[in-house]
Amino acid sequence: MAPDRLREGIAPARLGAEQYADNFADLHPPLSEHEAMVAADRCYFCYDAPCVTACPTQIDIPLFIRQIATGDPMGSANTIFDQNILGGMCARVCPTETLCEEACVREIAEGKPVLIGQLQRYATDVAMSQGRQFYERAQPSGKKVAVVGAGPAGLACAHRLAMHGHDVVVHDGRPKAGGLNEYGIAAYKTVDGFAQAEVDYVTAIGGIELKHESALGRDIQLDQLLEDHDAVFIGIGLADVNSLDVEGEEVEGVADAVDYIAGLRQADDLSKLPVGRRVVVIGGGMTAIDVAVQSKLLGAEEVTICYRRGKDRMNASEFEQDLATSKGVAIRHWLQPKRVVAEGGKAAAIELEYTEEQGGKLAGTGETLTLAADQIFKAIGQKLVSDSLGDAGVKLTGGRIDVDGEGRTANTKIWAGGDCTGEGEDLTVTAVAQGRDAAESIHAALSGGDA
After folding, report:
1. Which residues is 281 bridged to in the sheet?
2. Interhelix angle 286-297/318-326, nearest 10 degrees
3. pLDDT tens-digit profile of 136-179?
């Protein structure tokens, strides 16, 4: 039977087999050598370059682009990895349009920035494809560090610690390492198993042991890790999803966006992944955009994002919003969920209330709108599973782990970084910077520089 995208309810195989491959192809195909040289030639190689200041990992962007322009992509990769060992993934998923490229002098002068992200991908891909490593482990220090969480923060921390000669054991609750890079990024942004290839590249330095399906609070306890290791780094991200707190939220067809994206990322055959005919996504961040676009690419007929505030308040970048609308996703603002309408125990529609600003605060107007929906995704933010921390003396502020400027917690043997802390934006590149910097602080402490 031919695929029929008009089938009611949540169903698989809404498209023809060949369409899935086309729909989930690389969002930004890699630059050829010639294209990279042309793109690099546009850089002014600014002194005190604003693009470097805008990069959370402080990569020397003018230098790595100059190295590409002079035919030295390996040197360019070395410059990138020196500051960001996950530079390949960041080149694919960073919102460069609001970071380095927004600050680019070409963008300010001409409205067309240097393709910094794509050039970074070009250089790192060259090095990774040849297995070129730029770092060797120092002599063994005799110190052992536990890293909890194999996401960007944990991997960056583990690599830098291993480079300094410390033995690192990385615990992660999932079957694969990578964290959000493996389970939470839209499939069209990181194709061909790149997340696992990057994990292999990072751990190739040696001295890093990965322990999968080893979750904090379930399989391992923080107090035991402290007893068995000289220091602990926590990079567990935000594993719990905020609820809508509305009537009908528990019915079939209402799902967490992050869980759906994780399932999609691990699917061997996208045609077997069920998707609704009419999909509504509640939220305004990157997760909302990712699940909405991918629902459309899986064959959903109608996909609507509903956000409680205006366009300018959405956490998703303007580029991502434009990407969604270009794929046929409708984005509606000033709407908040009020009730999930169910028929036969399954979602059939969602009732929303119009909102407005009143005295600087969001308030409902009392006027409502009902959208037909057989699948509703919650993408209104995630929160820390704080119970897993036990009573090791780690303090929380605003529901996240409180750390100082070096990533150190209230317990002087524990550091933390990434989304589980309240520092910086919830971005892959920010997590990498925090993991790297925490590793340097840990190294100083273990070396006697900061007892």
Report:
1. 305, 377
2. 20
3. 999 999 999 999 999 999 999 999 999 999 999 999 999 999 99
Helix (H, G, I), strand (E, B) or coil at 15: coil
CA distance 41 to 18: 38
Residue 289 C-beta-side C-alpha neighbours within 13 Å: 23
Class of domain 241-381: alpha beta
- For 193, phi then psi, to 5°, come to 65, 30
Q: What is the CATH number of domain 144-239+384-446?
A: 3.50.50.60
- For position 450, what pLDDT does the model report? 53
Alpha-carbon Rg of the chain, whole angstroms? 23
d(CA 218, CA 200): 26
**Any idea what the Cα angle at residue 443 is, between residues 392 and 49, rounded to 5°?**
110
Angle of the 116-129 helix axis to the 33-40 helix axis, nearest 10: 140
Q: Is the pLDDT of residue 262 over 80?
A: yes
Question: Whole-angstrom Cα distance, residue 397 to residue 378?
Answer: 24
Per residue, what are the HEC states of 324-338?
HHHCCCEEECCEEEE
Which class is 33-129 in CATH?
mainly alpha
Token pair for residue 87?
A: 């530079």
**Would you kindly state where each structural domain of the chain is located, as residue ranges?**
33-129, 144-239+384-446, 241-381
- Tell the residue number behind the tokens 């109608």, with chain if given: 302
**Distance between CA atoms of residues 320 and 331, nearest Å:** 12
Is the pTM here over 0.85, yes or no?
yes
Residue 91 CB-density burial (10 A; 0-12 exposed, 13-18 middle, 19+ buried): buried
Mean pLDDT, range 424-435, rounded to an integer: 94
